Amino acid sequence: MTDRKMTIREMCEAFDVTPRTLRFYEAKELLFPIREGQKRLFTKRDRARLKLILRGKRFGFSLEEIRQLLDLYYMDDSQETQLRKTYTLAEKHLAEMEAQRDELNEAIAELKEQMAWGAKRLKELAPDRAAG
Amino acid sequence: MTDRKMTIREMCEAFDVTPRTLRFYEAKELLFPIREGQKRLFTKRDRARLKLILRGKRFGFSLEEIRQLLDLYYMDDSQETQLRKTYTLAEKHLAEMEAQRDELNEAIAELKEQMAWGAKRLKELAPDRAAG
DNA sequence: AGGAAAGATGACGTGAACGTAAACGTAACG
DNA sequence: CGTTACGTTTACGTTCACGTCATCTTTCCT
């Protein structure tokens, strides 16, 4: 397994975040780097989680929401009750994400329409170097 | 034209926001309610803008980004330079939104995969009332 | 041994996006 | 004519997600 342990600095370069951010995520229990003496070492698991965290952020989820969602990707030997709870939560998030995608598609279509209008106006103003 | 002017209270109920939010958006120059004495009256234009604002927020845009995007939807007699600037900005946003949609689709697919895995585990634990 | 480089902790600061409380205006209602 | 409802401004408070010191170890290098 490629379970290279990475230092905080390596993580920062790999994911373009600051040390503060990684420590903050650990404090919020989103990451669980192991310790070698004082120093944090980030595992393959932490890297996978961080990738999901950053993605979640881009979709506008809060860190707390993301923390709960992460459990789904790392369900292991949970009890049924917990598993079912997590599953239900995931269903909710899935619905939200699909709704967001649909709305996004709609917004994209509208924006394109507006841009077509703008392009037409630009063309009238300067036919030689119009937008396209 | 259905240009009914709405009070702040009516707006709040129609869009599920607080008065504070509407005043805040006005301060940030996202909305421009007219005044009847002291009181704000929100026009059809304000309603259209607010709808776009709330949508932009769901997509994770900041109010400042939204403010700039709104100009595109309300381009009227701008000069070419301004129009071209707005158009360029819109292109950038469009690209971002399309990228976000693609990533969202990917995330949805992955989440579904994880949920299928979870559903299978739940089925093993309790075949009678499994998740579907 | 001496010093830079990397990492740690702790505490205070910051920007965005509002929430909340105080104090005031005004307009209709019983 | 008082009070209830709705609206206003001003101003300080709050949450989230970090940024930014200051200070202290640990480690590596020459």
UniProtKB/TrEMBL annotation, chains A, B:
Coiled-coil regions listed: 87-114
Keywords of this entry: Coiled coil, DNA-binding, Transcription, Transcription regulation
Database matches in PROSITE patterns: HTH_MERR_2
InterPro entries with a match to the protein in the record: DNA-bd_dom_put_sf, MerR-type_HTH_dom, MerR_fam, Tscrpt_reg_MerR_DNA-bd
Transmembrane segments: none
Keyword Membrane among record annotations: no
Top-level taxon of origin: Bacteria
Occurrences of domain HTH merR-type (ranges): 5-72
A GO molecular-function annotation: DNA-binding transcription factor activity
Protein name: MerR family transcriptional regulator
Lineage: Bacteria, Pseudomonadati, Pseudomonadota, Alphaproteobacteria, Rhodobacterales
